[in-house]
Design a protein that fits this description.
alpha+beta; elongated; about 170 residues
């Protein structure tokens, strides 16, 4: 567990490093063949094996690629209900709220946003009753004054970045 929220914030900020064209090509090839070997990638992309291996190491080492566990669909773990929970947070208690939100396993991600609320959390639950429990747990976090929950009815465009990679390279 991360103890220092500033360290977490810096780690996330450092993940935004730019990747070069060779790395973009490696990532797109892995979309086609997720279990590809370095040899296969090298041959397919016409890059030296060492180049491919170095790119993969850099992508994971610098935090450019998300953790492998983020590829798991929550539904396959029994979490069939997804929602967005927005929250208003007392600014003097923001760090405490974030530390407590980190302890809630059903909070998949949380982002600070501008506008009427302070946070938007993507959460999962087993069913509607469980979503109520998750929402109450979020509301019980220190500093969170109010929440609003919107259930996701259907994923229309899944999270994706391949189109961004393709727009930057000629693969």
């Amino acid at each position: 567990m991360i103890d220092d929220l500033q360290t977490l914030g810096h780690a996330v900020a450092n993940m935004a490093k730019r990747i070069d064209e060779a790395s973009q090509r490696v990532i797109l090839a892995l979309d086609v063949e997720p279990r590809a070997t370095v040899g296969w990638l090298s041959e397919r992309l016409r890059l030296a094996r060492g180049t491919v291996q170095a790119r993969i190491s850099l992508l994971f080492g610098e935090g450019v690629l998300r953790l492998t566990s983020t590829l798991v669909r929550p539904e396959s773990l029994g979490y069939g209900t997804r929602a967005f929970v927005t929250a208003e947070v007392g600014q003097s208690e923001f760090e405490k709220a974030m530390k407590e939100l980190l302890t809630i396993p059903e909070v998949l991600e949380c982002n600070a946003v501008s506008g009427e609320t302070d946070l938007i959390c993507h959460v999962v639950a087993i069913d509607a009753d469980d979503l109520y429990r998750v929402g109450q747990r979020i509301l019980g976090c220190t500093g969170i004054r109010r929440t609003s929950t919107s259930i996701i009815l259907k994923e229309l465009i899944p999270y994706r970045t391949a189109q961004l990679l393709r727009s930057k390279t000629s693969v």
